[in-house]
Design brief:
amino-acid biosynthesis; TIM Barrel; disordered C terminus; TrpF_fam; 8-stranded parallel sheet; tryptophan biosynthesis; isomerase; EC 5.3.1.24; alpha/beta; binds ligand LGQLAAA5
Length: 220
Amino acid sequence: MPDIRVKICGLKTEADVAAVAATGAAYMGLVFFAKSPRHLSIEQARRLALVAPVGLAKVALTVNADDATLDAITEAMPLDMLQLHGHESPDRVAEVRARYGLPVMKAVGVADEGDLAAVFDYSLVADQILVDAKPPKNAALPGGNGLSFDWRLVAQRRWLRPWMLAGGLTPENVAEAIRLTNARQVDVSSGVESAPGVKDAGRIAAFVKAAMMDGPPILR
Ligand SMILES: O=C(O)c1ccccc1N[C@@H]1O[C@H](COP(=O)(O)O)[C@@H](O)[C@H]1O
């Protein structure tokens, strides 16, 4: 039974945290991006971070955030990882990693083979890579759009660092995405919502169950 680690991104309420914790998901994502329907104020995010149980890793998602913003976020709440989802350069990723002493996951948008070089480049400086669909030109959000990319581009890929598959995943397609790509980690936001920014506990449970191939890994 493969050990698949699931990240549910864009939680907004304490009930969302409880729903995610109940499934055995590995990570919960807190979005700090004002244009997103999942955006949280620092105080809202702090409350969620403080009720998260041990074992559920808290990931702060930011987009081209400056030091002052990252200082405010990291000082306000306990976190386990920073997710950089903008156009942060490899140098900026290395700088953030050194400044905050937290693992950094860099998102890379993929639409075609040519985008995969960036996965390699960032794997030299980040702790993890989030391989996401490239957003359409002029999209308001750089992620969280419910769009997938051609999974065959990353099928059976191995990189220097652990990677996570994202983009348009749903309870209905995640098992096939894992089968095709051999991803060991998956991330979802809009695919487990009933409306933009509104998480659906039933879809969260169905997603994690499907990702774990109908059951959590058997512990030996
Ligand atoms: O979720 C958001 O609102 C968001 C905003 C800005 C950058 C990234 C965002 N979400 C990330 O994008 C992936 C894919 O989302 P989806 O499943 O296709 O809706 C998601 O897993 C988040 O990490």
